[in-house]
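Follow-up to my post from last week.
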Amino acid sequence: MTARPDLMSDPGGAPEADLQAAICSLNPARFAGERIGGALVELQAARQDVEKAVERILAEAEAMLDGDTSVERAIAVMEACAVHDIVGQRLTKVEALLAELDRRLARLAGAAALTALPEAESPSEARQRELWLNGPARPAEGLSQADADRLFE
Amino acid sequence: MPAANMPILVVDDYKTTIKIVHGLLRQLGFTNLDEAENGEEALRKLRTQSYQLVISDWNMEPMTGIELLRSVRADSALRATPFIMITAESKVENVVAAKQAGANNYIVKPFSAEALKQKIVSIFGDF
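User reply:
Got it. Predicted complex:
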């Protein structure tokens, strides 16, 4: 593990044993390799699962719009909706990892009495800020269509 | 009232979204639909073919929707082309920036078929 330049250690911090235990709890070989790598695989699989399901639902919807309203079409849509369960399980694994990593990093920062220093903005962060690339809003934070319409009046 | 065969360019880096928007436009009666996967490809198409409406996502690379909109409004041959932003970017600053850059309307994802129809009606009149 390399030291982060944006974190400065307070020499009057916690005892060395606590710091060592906090570092060991990060278990870099397991977290950085197996678990973070595993989480990335889960996220990629989730994306593929959703893409496949949406493709199927869209195909069924198009067939229905073309006049085929057979029960089989509706059943196929319901089958595709099972993606919610699968993706939910994949995301639960990733959530658990992030929560655990957050807890262990907080322990490390506490044990080493690390203080965050301001970081320089990277080129990609500057581009995101300049072009308002925020992505989807967090739940209950984004504007509704009615809000956007009012701003456009 | 818009003609059913007016050429419409839908710009999004997600094929699924293009399929959805195309599907909804077809249901509204439009038949002349094209697509581009980012602002750069869209601008190339706009400069070589004629379109009467652009419906564009915001968050794409290498050229975003807001950059595409600015390029369209800065080009004398394209600047009158109606432009609807359709995006998951839903902060006040995004809507204000789109309006200032000259967007004709703004649709927040996820969107309804009715919202898409309303925005087209607000530009071209009822159909």
